[in-house]
Amino acid sequence: FFCLSLQAKMSRPVHSRRLEGVDKNIWVEFVKLAATYSTVNLGQGFPDFPPPDFLKEALVTALSGENHMLHQYTRAFGHPPLVKILAQFFGKLLGQDLDPMTNVMVTVGAYQALFCCFQAFVDEGDEVIIIEPFFDCYEPMVTMAGGTPVFVPLRPKAPENGKMMSSADWKLDSAELASKFNERTKAIVLNSPNNPLGKVFSRGELELIADLCVKHDVLCISDEVYEWLVYDGKEHIRIASLPGMWDHTVIIGSAGKTFSATGWKVGWTVGPNRLLQHIRTVHQNSVYHCATVAQEAVAQGFQREFMLYGKPDSYFVQLPKELQKKRDWLVQSLDAAGMKPIIPEGTYFLLADISNFKSDVPDNPNSDEPYDSRFAKWMVKNKGLAAIPLSAFYCRAHKNNYSHFIRFCFAKEEATLKAASDILQKWKQEKTSP
Amino acid sequence: MLLASRSFCCLGIRTYQLQTDLLSRSIKLSASATMTFRQKNTRRIEGLDSNVWVEFTKVAADPSIVNLGQGLPDISPPNYVKEELAKASAVDRLNQYTRGFGHPSLVKALSQVYERVCGRKIDPLTDILVTVGAYGSLFSTIQALIEEGDEVIIIEPFYDCYEPMVKMAGAKPVFIPLRYKNDGNSASSADWVLDPAELANKFNSKTKAIILNTPHNPVGKVFTREELQVIADLCIKHDTLCISDEVYEWLVYKGNQHIKIATLPGMWERTITIGSAGKTYSVTGWKLGWSIGPQNLIKHLQVVHQNTLYACPTPLQEALAQAFWIDYKRMDDPDCYFYSLSRELESKRDRMAQLLQDAGLKPVVPDGGYFMIVDVSTLNVDLSDVDAKQPYDYKFVKWMITSKKLSAIPLSAFCGPETKRQFEKYIRFCFIKKDSTLDAAEVILKNWNKQTA
């Protein structure tokens, strides 16, 4: 009897079932490829320019001060100066009176905020609607929580007059979206501005989603990490400010994207206490505290921005202005080289159609790897230019729906973008010369 | 809020604590009722909302209170550690994402330090995961390897997060208490031991893992080689994993040696060993920890990590790596911080023990760690008129905070339901405190009997 039970235990896998199907991760592979081969890395989404001086100074001040207690634990749900300024700042934007202790919680990046949301609200049997293309972690996080992801695509409609396609040309079909909601639907994940497409959802589109959330009593997990990166005078509208939505929404933000400091891993959730209390429970049983000194510096950063809000000196005004120039520069380079860009309304990503370059990477019917992934790998190894295949942002069943797009990150120094342009021009010349 | 009763989610009858704006008032009342029900929390966190720290850190935050409660140093980290962080944050690329499973220079440094300690090769990329504190390592390990149907043995008293983490993973905690050998007159943490027969009885075919904490929080016990061998034998016999929380590994006092259970025969392949920058370098606010073990186990922790927070902060990891190189190079030198901190704490330990003894108490002198527990029942503080439902030590600590301006942590926070009665006369003091804090504690303890409750 004893040997049998031991054998039974040894024949079971050692890992828990919740890890089934969530072990693959595109970044592990592509980050390694970029590190090995790339000379110009427009792949993973991080700036290659530094955070603003005022933020770096805030960290130096925090470190050089008399108070060495900044090296010790702070309040678990968020360093008081940070949650206070976040409550003030977002309270103003949302037109709500926010309590820093109950309506805000700090996390280790927006990534951990997403994790807490899924763990707090998604149980086995729950469905979560995910709009494609999506930041890839949503799907495995829903799966790990025992939920079922339900996908609904943004569908592109070619613009008239041969204009360049914009992220605004990709839209949800309202009947299709409505059909995805049922009694098992627990949540919908909204990402606006959207990574990888760059779409900034319009008020009408948000109202469509909001109506369905209120009608079906569904939670909206609103990933707004690129909230400040909107171009062409577009407005980032917060779905939580729509009628009925404050009570149905958890807003997620990121200091990494806000202040060009992705390595600091400071994020936050904002929402009603009724929802945040459960997010706090997950947090206190998983990570508990976030690093103190980074929170102190981010708090200082927000204080400055609160004072300068709307003014020309505000980083939240300057950064999108800078990035819009870079966007336009990259769009032009890609267009000139024959890769067809989709102009993003927001974020620091854009998609480009590589159809004109397909001859370099022949189709392989024997491979079940999506074409764009094979293309992107070939490109980084042979051209030194790193980008991410669009299929990374689709569920397995839909990975081949759009087989010829890759995503570029343009939060890069001029020199980097110029180097990318040089690679593309040379590549184009190689193709056209006899 | 969190201090309120454990049950939440009342259907329909609810008081919203926030002002709702004009627009939200348009929601019909019936919708409010279904809203509350629909956005109920998941089963996995049911009953896990309360937490001793949330309760007690708030109460002790008052600066007039001498805080010997929560385990955080009020001494400064070494200067070179602080300098390395300033240096790291000045490097532009170190303000952006690093490798998810651990910053390359940090995992390299960790592999060197622990190769030396363990006497075996440790691959920095496959055998190590960097996490958000040891807390994050515990979470990643439990989520990766523990699930419904599993039992996990937890030794009482235990660092309080073990129980909710095991429950959140859907598994059943099985408790076994440390018992004192000598009848009630324990003077040393070494007097608290596991009964081998009792321990053996806790193992069965469902036992997936045992959580070991050495040096132990809160008792301060440093498990001996023989004691570890008893645990190891059972792990091997029952094919059980060992989750070894060794955050206080450098804080062992004279006459004691920290032994890593993973170095015992047959144990490397079934052990995850957890460490902490916060405890190693007195920087609890850096929240960096690590899990070290065989690739076939660590790879599952890495999967959890890539689906929870992906990467830990870069500048902190780089600074930690540099600090480790500095101390790695002097691991043969008594000035190495790993040893000098331990010496510094040993004298604080001795002072703390003396203060408590002078106050007429019998502290359990720890062989390691920076906590000391003490039986306060001999003070005969009558708290019977206070809320009867709370254990005695909770009531005592709250009373001590208000009337004596001294804080500690009640030991029953570290016990399973069956043993709370056994441990409710103990409270835990943290002594990694600067001299002025201990001076202030001394004044309070000397004057204890002069004030009436």
UniProtKB/TrEMBL annotation, chain A:
It catalyses: L-kynurenine + 2-oxoglutarate = kynurenate + L-glutamate + H2O; 3-phenylpyruvate + L-glutamine = 2-oxoglutaramate + L-phenylalanine; an S-substituted L-cysteine + H2O = a thiol + pyruvate + NH4(+). This is Kynurenine--oxoglutarate transaminase 1. It holds the Pfam family Aminotran_1_2. It is found in: Cytoplasm, Cytosol. Belongs to the class-I pyridoxal-phosphate-dependent aminotransferase family. Its cofactor is pyridoxal 5'-phosphate. Keywords: Aminotransferase, Cytoplasm, Lyase, Pyridoxal phosphate, Transferase. Residues 40-420 form the Aminotransferase class I/classII large domain. Its EC number is 2.6.1.64, 2.6.1.7, 4.4.1.13. Transmembrane segments: none annotated. Gene3D superfamilies: Aspartate Aminotransferase, domain 1, Type I PLP-dependent aspartate aminotransferase-like (Major domain). InterPro entries: Aminotransferase_I/II_large, Kynurenine-oxoglutarate_AT, PyrdxlP-dep_Trfase, PyrdxlP-dep_Trfase_major, PyrdxlP-dep_Trfase_small. It comes from Probosciger aterrimus. The gene is Kyat1.
TrEMBL record, chain B:
Pathway: Amino-acid degradation; L-kynurenine degradation; kynurenate from L-kynurenine: step 1/2. InterPro entries: Aminotransferase_I/II_large, Kynurenine-oxoglutarate_AT, PyrdxlP-dep_Trfase, PyrdxlP-dep_Trfase_major, PyrdxlP-dep_Trfase_small. The keyword Transcription regulation does not apply. Keywords: Aminotransferase, Lyase, Pyridoxal phosphate, Transferase. Its EC number is 2.6.1.63, 2.6.1.7, 4.4.1.13. Pfam families: Aminotran_1_2 (PF00155). Residues 65-431 form the Aminotransferase class I/classII large domain. One of its GO terms (cellular component) is mitochondrion. SUPFAM superfamilies: PLP-dependent transferases. GO terms for biological process: L-kynurenine catabolic process. GO terms for molecular function: cysteine-S-conjugate beta-lyase activity; kynurenine-glyoxylate transaminase activity; kynurenine-oxoglutarate transaminase activity; pyridoxal phosphate binding. Its cofactor is pyridoxal 5'-phosphate. The keyword ATP-binding does not apply. It catalyses: 3-hydroxy-L-kynurenine + glyoxylate = xanthurenate + glycine + H2O; L-kynurenine + glyoxylate = kynurenate + glycine + H2O; L-kynurenine + 2-oxoglutarate = kynurenate + L-glutamate + H2O; an S-substituted L-cysteine + H2O = a thiol + pyruvate + NH4(+). Catalyzes the irreversible transamination of the L-tryptophan metabolite L-kynurenine to form kynurenic acid (KA), an intermediate in the tryptophan catabolic pathway which is also a broad spectrum antagonist of the three ionotropic excitatory amino acid receptors among others. May catalyze the beta-elimination of S-conjugates and Se-conjugates of L-(seleno)cysteine, resulting in the cleavage of the C-S or C-Se bond. Belongs to the class-I pyridoxal-phosphate-dependent aminotransferase family. Homodimer. This is Kynurenine--oxoglutarate transaminase 3. It comes from Probosciger aterrimus.
